[in-house]
Write a structure and sequence with these properties.
The protein is mostly helical. Helices cover 83% and strands 0% of the residues. It has one domain. The radius of gyration is 13 Å and the shape is elongated. The chain starts with a helix and ends with a helix.
């Protein structure tokens, strides 16, 4: 379980870092999209950060 908890923590930190980079230059993080804007960056990487943070908390409570 500690490895799973560590994985979700690192995934949260990575998604937050990607979101910060994407807020500066959206093209770097959304290169596969036809239209890149900061709202999409927040929607994609913000949702990944929130879901992985919730999973981290759940795994921490179970452990």
């Amino acid at each position: 379980m500690p490895y799973l908890r560590f994985f979700f923590l690192m995934m949260t930190i990575t998604a937050i870092n990607f979101m910060l980079v994407g807020l500066y230059k959206p093209w770097l993080m959304l290169w596969w999209e036809d239209f890149q804007n900061r709202r999409k960056v927040i929607r994609v990487y913000g949702s990944v950060a929130l879901v992985s943070l919730m999973l981290y908390v759940v795994v921490r409570l179970i452990d």
